[in-house]
Amino acid sequence: MLTAIFLYLSLLLFAPTLTCAQRSADALSEIKALTAFKLNLHDPLGALDGWNSSTPSAPCDWRGILCYNGRVWELRLPRLQLGGRLTDQLSNLRQLRKLSLHSNAFNGSVPLSLSQCSLLRAVYLHYNSFSGGLPPALTNLTNLQVLNVAHNFLSGGIPGNLPRNLRYLDLSSNAFSGNIPANFSVASSLSSSTFRSTSSPVGFRLASESFNSFSICDNALKGLIPATLGAIPKLRVLSLSRNELSGSVPASMFCNVSANPPTLVIVQLGFNAFTGIFKPQNATFFSVLEVLDLQENHIHGVFPSWLTEVSTLRILDLSGNFFSGVLPIEIGNLLRLEELRVANNSLQGEVPREIQKCSLLQVLDLEGNRFSGQLPPFLGALTSLKTLSLGRNHFSGSIPASFRNLSQLEVLNLSENNLIGDVLEELLLLSNLSILNLSFNKFYGEVWSNIGDLSSLQELNMSGCGFSGRLPKSIGSLMKLATLDLSKQNMSGELPLEIFGLPNLQVVALQENLFSGVVPEGFSSLLSMRYLNLSSNAFSGEVPATFGFLQSLVVLSLSQNHVSSVIPSELGNCSDLEALELRSNRLSGEIPGELSRLSI
């Protein structure tokens, strides 16, 4: 009995000592692993200078380390310009839950040894320079929920199986190649979900119910999209843009094709080589899709009118394809639509009046099609519009007076149509306009004398329209203006001095007009100037030597004027100059040797 009591008391006395000893061993192991990690790195900012094993609570009081019960749970060192390879000794951080090293300059391969950190839940390695393949052993990290390795140089194929609890996967902006595996899945027990179809093996295993975001855009993937990818339960975001994927887009990208309810909210498939879209087999289908991006593919056929049944759509981008036919009147069914982009297709006919039902529209981009008829006055009812782009079509008539109601408008593009008449002065009421493009129409008259009222303008293009008269002084009120294109008109007179006080001006295109006076030296004060074209006018005098101050200038054209004297050597200071056009003038003397150091 006494012996038993003695043993019991001994356990009570020595148990804490054993626990502390064990804890110290764990801490020493983690200190050793982190020290090896540090010694392997380039640390130009000295971010890890405080990593010293002599600190009172090492390593838990080190920068970027978060501990729980004396063990390292998180290693967080983003945006510190750290470089070098990751040491395999990180695998000794056995309690590690989060590894965040994004936005640095790490290189080499992603360590295979990370798969030994079995408690990892989140790995953020994006915006580095990692290369090689994605270690297949990462599948063993059964607790992993977030894996972000975007914006590296990783290559090879996409693993078919991924950790079963994965919720967020971002492999974008790397060099992954090959096909999306037909057996792509997140390994899970068959009790959660099984999907069967003629295009996949019987019993094909899908993602766990928590997997909700998959991004692998901007890689080099080829081949078809497995139809089963869109049927992964709970998947909400799928981004495959900027690859080389081809064939037809499966219907599972848009709606439910299985017993599971639809979950995809965002589908981004732009900048690939798709040639078609599979229409849902059932006349009645269910969808919760809000964003569909199919821009810049090779999809042919008429506008897919069945998409107008997806009433949840907010953003629809079909631009840069080969869609033909008319824009269906059912487009008015999309009452939640905020952006409709169908630019650069072959759509024709008139814009359907029913589109005015889409009262939430903020972007309407119909540019580069074959739409015809009068500019629709009913577009003036879309008062939430911020971008209206109708350029490069066959619209005719005048600008509707109702456009003055578009008070939120920031971008208005009516270029390259057959519009006629005097440009509505009511457009000056659109005080939020930052881009106004009326170029290559058949307008007449003079540029508004109070054009300075458009104080938010950053880009003004009224070229090729037949405007005449002088450039108004109020142009000097456009303090945000960066691009001014009034070329190919009948404008005349001297340039107003006020134009030389526009601090953000970078592009000035005034060629093929009747402007006169001496070559304006005032442009020398616009140090942001990159493009200055005054050719084919009636300017006289000398080429200002002060143009040499324009070190950002890329193009300078004064050809076909009445410029005389010599070419100033100071132009050799325009270190970015690539094009210097001075032909058909009255210049004399030798070409300055200083110009030889330019890249023209």
Automatic annotation (TrEMBL):
Subcellular location: Membrane
InterPro entries: Leu-rich_rpt, Leu-rich_rpt_typical-subtyp, LRR_dom_sf, LRR_N_plant-typ, LRR_R13L4/SHOC2-like
Domain Leucine-rich repeat-containing N-terminal plant-type: 29-67
Keyword Nucleotide-binding tagged: yes
Gene Ontology CC annotations of this record: membrane
Domain Disease resistance R13L4/SHOC-2-like LRR: from-to ranges: 308-443
Protein name: Putative LRR receptor-like serine/threonine-protein kinase
Gene3D superfamilies, sorted: Ribonuclease Inhibitor
PANTHER family per record: OS07G0466500 PROTEIN, OS10G0469600 PROTEIN
Record key words, sorted: ATP-binding, Glycoprotein, Kinase, Leucine-rich repeat, Membrane, Nucleotide-binding, Receptor, Repeat, Signal, Transferase, Transmembrane, Transmembrane helix
Recorded GO MF terms: ATP binding; kinase activity
Entry membrane topology: Single-pass type I membrane protein
Signal peptide start-end: 1-21
Pfam families xref list: LRR_1 (PF00560), LRR_14 (PF23598), LRR_8 (PF13855), LRRNT_2 (PF08263)
Record keyword Metal-binding present: no
